[in-house]
């Protein structure tokens, strides 16, 4: 007997079910199945056979006549699961969570079956399943005497429609509301009609009460939020490139527009702001974002023969695309923080070998994999670097002079902060005591808000009031160290009195209106400015401390800084800001490469270093995280894993074990072991050979982009 293998959006391998009664297997269709004590929607990802059908549950019914995910997409789903070392259900949960649509569920007894206790007396035909006890349905289902039918529910909304024409029985306000409703045909709500008619809500309620209008349910029309349309003439490259870098943002979009004329393209963006920035030039394309309502994503999923601009959830879009494009491949936003922890550029390369990289500046990955580059002329870089060892305070005299010059000319200044909050830590000037997180091996960040301020751990969220004096020696000499965004903003407000100083960071924005209106002023921002840029008259970009953007624990940090600088240069295509970079190491290769205006010199040196060290992209890497609440248990488990792997792995295939850069996070001690190989099959063998780490917890991070924190 045939079976169907169903992947639920859960971290589980596919589960075996019998097909719905009277139905054949439908590969790629959504199906409603019994799971535990309820029903779930899953995806049919395989077909098999069984000799013991009595041991399997029967699926309830399909939601699709045609495959929701066609056969090539199902094959890619299995490929992704193997590539990420996770069950197929985890891939569904990460990339296709919107398969779970609301559905109607009806039941009836098989013809001739006796009516069981608890079944309604009048229940000879179809009944809503929700009116019957779940235990009864499960019992009848197991006995084979229950017929069931499911269908995807159509999204509906309540709207207001007119029923009768105005007459003498209405007040002037009610008459005005009714005449407005007849003119409109329908209104979204009572409040909407009252606003449009310029009357009070009571007048609208009167129309409903007296039968002049009625509230009805109607299909909900879903569409992406509207965006302006901007014309853009396509550029036609003389050959088909596999990477496009340099130029202005609109030039890269024009090249993409030219390539799209060959057929539909799938364009993957790291986050929604960049997607929307591009979408204004492609009104004919489908926008597909994980931020859209699930019902809208399901509707867009049915669109065919169009290019798709999307986030990571568009990866399995059911279309035979001409090319798949990854935009700004170095962006950390391409990395899923939990679940499969997929890094989209790596996964896309595994699923679509004919990949196109497109961005402001190339990365070592793009140089390694792409052999037919299209190099657009880069923007002219204006700027210089200042040796911070020769200057005291936040800003050198030259930096302050240039900021004053820009402001006096009515222009705007962007000051980049590496961290939010006021300071990285508090330190006692008398005994050196530093308040630290009780859960993490980290100093508490100082936020200067409220009475006396507060101390916050940015890893686990622990918060406590800032002490008025040192808890260790009682001294009142508590000094802030490691300037954060708020400290820099306060300092600038004191240096430039009367000048608007805005603040922009993940989770907050303050005093942006004057800047958005074009007034001269200063914006102190984290990298959030790449997603939300309020500046319209930018003249100067200042880095008070470049090294703040170069965390030592991330081998990709220099590449990230190089890309950040080029993206800031392209922040506003109408402006070409001057860069002033204050650094303790002014000869850093990323700084020199950017200021020289060369796009490829630094990435090529970075690639050469990675090749010498055997690091990605030359090999693929998997981070193995071992953690436990007891330090000794975590260390012992990590060393036990390492000994097991050293008997199977070549020396160049394993690094560690070693404590994580932050050795304790959220009350757990963390150790790392790195596996790496250029051969994907070999890497899979190494991962399979890991075995258990009990009683410690073991987590995998394929293609890691950082080594701090704790994997969820």
Annotation, overall tally of beta strands: 33
Q: Number of helical segments?
A: 19
- Helix fraction by DSSP (H/I, runs of at least 4): 25-40%
Spans where pLDDT lies below 50 across 5 or more residues:
none
Q: Please indicate the count of domains.
A: 5
Main sheet: strands, sense, barrel: 7 strands, parallel
What structural class should be given to the helix and strand makeup?
alpha/beta
- N-to-C span: 40 Å
CATH class of the largest domain: Alpha Beta
The CATH architecture of the largest domain would be: 3-Layer(aba) Sandwich
- CATH superfamily annotation of the largest domain: P-loop containing nucleotide triphosphate hydrolases
DSSP strand content: 25-35%
Shape: globular
Give the strand line-up of the largest sheet.
13-14-12-15-16-11-17
Indicate the CATH topology of the largest domain.
Answer: Rossmann fold
Mean pLDDT: 92
What does this protein look like?
The protein is an alpha/beta fold and 712 residues long. The protein folds into five domains: 151 residues, GIY-YIG endonuclease; 64 residues; 134 residues, Rossmann fold; 225 residues, 3-Layer(aba) Sandwich (Rossmann fold); 83 residues, Alpha-Beta Plaits (2-Layer Sandwich). 26% of the residues lie in helices and 25% in strands. The strands form eight sheets. A seven-stranded parallel β-sheet has the order 13-14-12-15-16-11-17, sandwiched between helices. Strands 18-29-28-19-27-25-26 form a seven-stranded mixed β-sheet, with helices on one face. The longest helix is centred in the C-terminal third of the chain and has 16 residues. The radius of gyration is 30 Å and the shape is globular. It starts with a strand and ends in a 10-residue tail after the last strand. The mean pLDDT is 92.
